[in-house]
Amino acid sequence: MKKIALSLGLGLSSLFGSSLVVYNSNIALVHEERSLRLDKSENSIIYEDVAPSIITESINLKLPKGVKLYSQQYRYDKLTLAKLLHYNIGKKVKVGEKTFTLLSANNKEAILKNKEGNIVTKESKSIIFDTIPARLLSKPSLIWNVKTDKNINAKLELDYLIKNIKWSANYVLDIEKNRADLRGFITLTNNSGKSFQDTTLYTLAGTINRVREHRPRVMYSKMMAQDAARVQESSHEGYHIYKIPFKVTLADKEKTQINFLSLQNIKVQREYEAHMSNPLFFHGENLINVNQYITLQKLSTPLPSGTVRIYSKLHNTSILLGESHIKHTPKNEAIKLKTGTNFDLKVKQSILKRNDSKNYYSADIRYTLANHSDEEKRVTLLIPFNKNRGSHIESIQKYTYTKGNLATFSIKIKANTTTHFDVHFESKK
Question: 417 and 286 in one domain?
């Protein structure tokens, strides 16, 4: 059986093309195409330099017509002194300037025979080896046992999944008054054990079904930025694909960032919300913080899941207003980003009267809103309350129901003032 090594270093095969599709779920799909030359016989093909994190069950091999595959194996013989000693038993080795035949060895001591036929012992670490034995695969390799009835000179295609490589989207939102610029970065983290040279890179946004998820490993850091306008986005089978239109080199243990999105002059709106307690079970008094949000107008481009960092200018410097996570967002959907808790806005919820009976909950609640800032603000109160036949609300303030069962009040508060309103809640038990 002949052994054919498919390795760029050996010059026995040329790489027609390679691509890498990176998913959010800590895996990537490697696609490679190489030339394959086989003589009419049984052959053992050694395909070197696959990623050590390969998921061997995922291998999708496409051999030329006329080549029959019998079996495949994955081997990776990490170079160690013990393995070098084992594979050189009975062969010539050197200790210093003298040549010996290696008879037996362990990691500490070796038994050798000199040219006079004498048996001597030496420290194993002092032995000099001329070459790495051919049987010792020092690179992660796939081995295919094949047979062909004719000479073959054609193309081989290989797909396989690897672990410990992922991508995520990160965004920077620069706000100036009521307008903002948004930049997006594809952040790739490669801990797969393999470097990829001049490969075509795709990232897939969406959640594919996996039998088992793998936890990511510790990341290393290195940055690279490219032109956002060149990244090509398209939809496919319910996912969104981003193609980087230039060849990318990803070293192992490296983090790379590529600018994939740049949007200018986006209209933004500030919103303030307070999430209140359920009045049917409320007693006493409670002071509630007011969360503040930045809402972006509906965008004409989809946004992959990621973290948005929000900045604003103040006194010729930049201020981080907050960070917010967004889910996969289709185009033409508004985006709401939480920046934090407003310093100057507070809402107090106080019980005025409870009159619960055997069949009903009944409560009168006072809501006091304070605005200590120098600008007028509108605050939205979100109050969980059952919306059924046996429930009703009485108040001079108008309200609507949002998100199902949230009684929602929108209150305008002038600068440096405090206001309040009362609400009667009643619901059948």
Answer: yes
